[in-house]
Amino acid sequence: MPVPSARLVAIQARTLAAAIAGGYVAHLVHVPLAWMIGAMVAVAAVAFTGREVAAIALARPVSMLVLGTALGQAYTPPVLRALASSLPALIVAGLGSILAGAASSRMTARIAGIDTKTAYYASVPGGIILMVMLAARAGLSVPTVTLIQTLRMVLVVLTFPPLLVAFVEPGVDVFSLVPVPIALPLLPLLFVATTAGAFVLRRFGIANAWMFGPICVSLVLALLERPLSGVPGVLIDAAQVLMGWSLGARINRELILRSRPLALASVAATGLLSLLSVLVGILVAVAFDLPVAAAILGTAPGGLPEMAITAKVLNLGVPLVLGFHLVRIFLCNLFVEHLYRLYAWAERTLGLST
């Protein structure tokens, strides 16, 4: 592994300082998901002044390790039973989210001036890594899909938490978090176990292993009623800062200005997709008698780690939100290409092709 230069280390340290300062300011003014949103906005603001920003490669994996360790503790036996009975709702919501992405892709194609297939892969909310991989497999423009997916995720992180706090009143239900007592002497052992879980999944090539490995280990410990220790709130806040640091470093002035049509398309299409996703979430919540706030967050067109940490911090049915996103990713992996063929056929049949 190459050793980073002194200049790069200085840039990373300066960027981290900005992230921490931004998170602290957001915390002081009571912004929802303050440490992640504040850190992300602060780093992006520094980048837009023309100064260099950088995050260390381990920032995102470490944040997902901490987050996954905390999230897995929510899966107690009653929660798993309730989640299993909700599987039809998760499937309906996943398909609805993919169709909402297909609908918004027409706006993406028109504003960005790109072909409909690239716009489709850039618009379906299946997670950045997965959709980029599927786009590459389909021979499409990976930079275009990456940029639009990334900007949408950033916009969703900035908008959904404040709107949920403002308009949705969370209630107590079977999916609500039950705090696990913190046992500091056992906390290092817990992280050793969840880190080992991450390395095992990485060995098998599982995407997002740094999150899913800890979730699996914590889940097993929760089912055995041996969670070892809860995760202190200060570590959750630190994970938010690391995630915001990593997200903010992805956005820079040159990239946005050079790709202005794609950026405009992403903003406009994200607005439409968000409205459709909220509608899908509300309909599914009403039809299947699920918590509205968790269903809205579960159908939100953001990334799984970002929406999971939102659910954790706001206590909005963490297992249910994770279930929504995991099922959607699974459906995207299996059916995105097939649904595109159906979508393209419908466009040709109805004479809507651009």
Considering DSSP H and I runs of 4 or more, what fraction of the residues is helical? over 70%
Strand content: under 5%
Report, as a whole number of angstroms, the end-to-end distance. 47 Å
Structural class: mainly alpha
How would you describe this protein?
The protein is mainly α and 354 residues long. Helix content is 76%, strand content 0%. The protein has helices at residues 6-28, 34-48, 59-72, 77-85, 87-112, 116-123, 128-137, 142-167, 187-203, 209-223, 233-250, 253-258, 260-288, 292-299, 304-314, 318-350. Helix 1 (6-28) crosses helix 11 (233-250) and helix 5 (87-112) crosses helix 16. The longest helix has 33 residues, at 318-350. 51% of the residues are buried. The mean pLDDT is 88.
Topology:
Blueprint: H1 6-28, H2 34-48, H3 59-72, H4 77-85, H5 87-112, H6 116-123, H7 128-137, H8 142-167, H9 187-203, H10 209-223, H11 233-250, H12 253-258, H13 260-288, H14 292-299, H15 304-314, H16 318-350
Helix pairs in contact: 1-2, 1-11, 2-11, 3-9, 3-10, 3-11, 3-15, 5-6, 5-13, 5-16, 6-8, 7-8, 8-13, 8-15, 9-10, 13-14, 14-16, 15-16
